[in-house]
Amino acid sequence: MSDATALPDLAVRTLGGAVIAASDESFAAKENLINPWAPAFRPQTFGAKGQEYDGWETARRRPGPDGRLGHDWAIVRLGLPGVIRGVVIDTAHFTGNFPPHASVEACAVDGHPSPAEVAAADWVEIVPMSPLKGDTAHEFTVAGVERRFTHVRLNIHPDGGVARLRVHGDVVPDPRLLTGLTIDLAALENGGRVVACSNGFYSAPDNMLFPGLARNQAEGWETARRREPGHEWAVVRLAAPGVIRLAEIDTSNLRYNAPGAVTLWGLDARRASLDDASAWRELLARTRVQPDGRHRFRLPGDREVTHVRVDIHPDGGLARLRLFGDLAPDGESLLTARWHELTN
């Protein structure tokens, strides 16, 4: 399922995800499910509730008055609504207290619903009841469900602990929030994606497109040290065809590993292939940048593009890349058509 896990984690906290409700969190908090870092574990760290876990852990279930055991659940609001392609249920470090089975459901609720309104929505099963092992990252492919979802519900049967829930997929932005406005055409939350990259040794290039400011250099894109001639690059597929008027190139936190210079190129994939070197047009000539700072450049804004390539000379990293501009008329139409296709 490598293709799915390469897609953005729509649920992760750094993209705005939140665990809005859970049946129980007696031993470890539900919010840990969507922490961006890998699960950690320190043995023999006992608190008032027992061994401390970097995950979500419920109490041991007992049959109720009706004799039924029931199961535990947690509802996650996706930071970026979209089409779900894969789910990872990670029981890292849970060995004698993991749930033996789990399933995942998804729903779509417009606006800003309360937990009760989400719980009452129409849910669709995207991962059927499946066996789990302890201390294991379980990858599940989600196929045949071409719908935009806003929330997921992790069901564990009957109880236990899960370290992380990852929900990978394609972002589907709400066109009502984008059309007619100047927007960041490269932003992940608007549907931008890095589709090719020369080197992502230290951190993924999609990090450049995350919302907010990078808190450290790991939250941006950073390459290995280049030992041969040339330079590193990344290609961004814009949210939709548009005209870029302002570029922001941010090297914050990159004090000794920022690139010496950058270049921006644009291409309209409606008229040429990404592999056609002659089709790329210069948007920003090779320009010196400084470490640990934000750089803003006005661009000519004289052509529609669907993709942008950022070249960093010779290597290094970028904290954020912002490409502000306007959607082309057919760009607005494409976003609206996709929205209606996946929400109706």
From TrEMBL:
InterPro entries in the record: Allantoicase (IPR005164), Allantoicase_dom (IPR015908), Galactose-bd-like_sf (IPR008979)
Gene3D superfamilies recorded: Galactose-binding domain-like
Catalytic activities: allantoate + H2O = (S)-ureidoglycolate + urea
Keyword Hydrolase appears in the UniProt entry: yes
Domain Allantoicase stretches: 16-171, 191-326
Pathway connected to this protein: Nitrogen metabolism; (S)-allantoin degradation; (S)-ureidoglycolate from allantoate (aminidohydrolase route): step 1/1
EC numbers for this chain: 3.5.3.4
Keywords: Hydrolase, Purine metabolism
Family the entry assigns: Belongs to the allantoicase family.
NCBIfam families: allantoicase (TIGR02961)
Name of the protein described by the UniProt record: Probable allantoicase
Lineage, uppermost ranks: Bacteria, Bacillati, Actinomycetota, Actinomycetes, Streptosporangiales
